[in-house]
Amino acid sequence: MAEAKVGIVLGSDSDLSLGREAAKVLASFGVPYELVLASAHRSPDKASRYAREASGRGLKVIIAIAGLAAHLPGVLAAQTTLPVIGVPVPAGTLGGLDALLSTAQMPSGVPVATVGIGAAKNAALLAVAILATTDSGLAARLAQYREELAREVQMKEERLKEQGLEF
After folding, report:
1. What is the reported pLDDT for 100?
2. CB-based contacts of 10: which residues, under 8 Å, 6+ apart?
3. What does the pLDDT look like over 43-88, one tens digit per residue?
4. C-alpha distances in angstroms, 114 versus 17, 27, 84, 85?
5. CA 60/CA 140 separation, integer angstroms
6. I want to staple 76 with a disulfide (CB 3.0 to 4.6 A). Which of 51, 56, 90, 139 is the partner?
7. Contact 47, 80 (CB under 8 A)
8. pTM to 2 decimals?
9. CB within 8 A of 23, min separation 6: which ones?
């Protein structure tokens, strides 16, 4: 695979299914990525080093997947000027609400783009949209994807009308 453009950073191995979901979306758009495990709490030096070195290695966007306290996206954002997209993991007694709030409530000046709880697919699509601002081929693929979504909605509406449902 070509040099990675998106880094997917997992806070724990238990986040792997979400990491794979993001990777699958990126791969479907032909966006090269890398997947790493770096904990904000258990391997803070690795997480900080990863963020500091990401741009120099050609990364353009970082997706950080973390649950519970969910400090990983903020730790990474504090160490790089690359866009960081946080994916709160649906875990713990609050089902990911704590992770969502932790990820979304960053101090002024160190933003983290935050998607919904468990929304790794949306994080990958947001990364694709960011990359598409400087890649016309990728922008065209993203536009085609969105046109397909619109066609699916239209087909579903037609099926409902065939079943006698009126709007």
Report:
1. 96
2. 16, 18, 19, 35, 36, 37, 38, 65, 66
3. 999 999 999 999 999 999 999 999 888 999 999 999 999 999 999 9
4. 18, 21, 9, 6
5. 19
6. 51
7. no
8. 0.94
9. 8, 33, 35, 124
